[in-house]
Amino acid sequence: MSEKIELNKTVFDKNQYSQLVNTEFSSIGAPQTPQETLEDQPTIDDFFEMYNDLFYDIPEFGDINSHQYLIQKSSEYINFDPNNDEIEALQREIGELRTELLQEQQRNIELTTGVSSTTPTIGVGENTAGPNSGNVSSTPSSNTSNY
């Protein structure tokens, strides 16, 4: 079964083409929105008025359409990290407490053994936890008894 298909092609010469088709750039980028559509768009004041009206209807948490989402998106936009100052202060305090603890441990060893030694200097806020952090290393002692 064969079916006959007719194709028609309209060809314009150079003069006809430029008369029929607009080849001038009016703008580059997004197409312009008609003025009527722009007037229908809410203003910033309208947005905040709607936001205040809907405030208690918006869910507190959620990946989208929630207060949590608004906070995250706005924080990303302005590079805002509310906990950064508090985190830095706590890291400094941890460093100071580690230094104090090391000094007290050294003093305890000196009082227990009667041997004086020097304490290494640790910068404030410097991470002193190594790959074995949390493990207490001690010198093995032999607890052997003779029977």
- Helices and strands, in N-to-C order? HHHHH
Question: How many β strands by DSSP?
Answer: 0
Determine the N-to-C terminus distance. 109 Å
The gross shape turns out to be: elongated
Query: Helix count, per DSSP?
Result: 5
Portion of residues in beta strands equals under 5%
Low-pLDDT residue intervals, each spanning 5 or more residues: 133-147
On the 0 to 100 scale, the average pLDDT is 78
How would you classify the helix and strand content by structural class?
A: mainly alpha
Major sheet details? none
Work out the helicity level.
40-55%
Radius of gyration (CA) equals 37 Å
Give a description of the structure.
With 147 residues, this protein is an all-alpha fold. Among the domains are: 39-80, no CATH class; 83-119, no CATH class. The protein has helices spanning 14-20, 35-40, 44-54, 67-78, 84-113. The radius of gyration is 37 Å and the shape is elongated. It starts with 13 loop residues before the first helix and ends in a 34-residue tail after the last helix.
Topology:
Layout: H1 14-20, H2 35-40, H3 44-54, H4 67-78, H5 84-113
Question: Keywords, please?
Answer:
mainly alpha; single chain; elongated; disordered C terminus; 0% strand; 147 residues
Q: How would you concisely characterize the structure shown here?
A:
With 147 residues, the chain is mainly α. It is 45% helix and 0% strand.
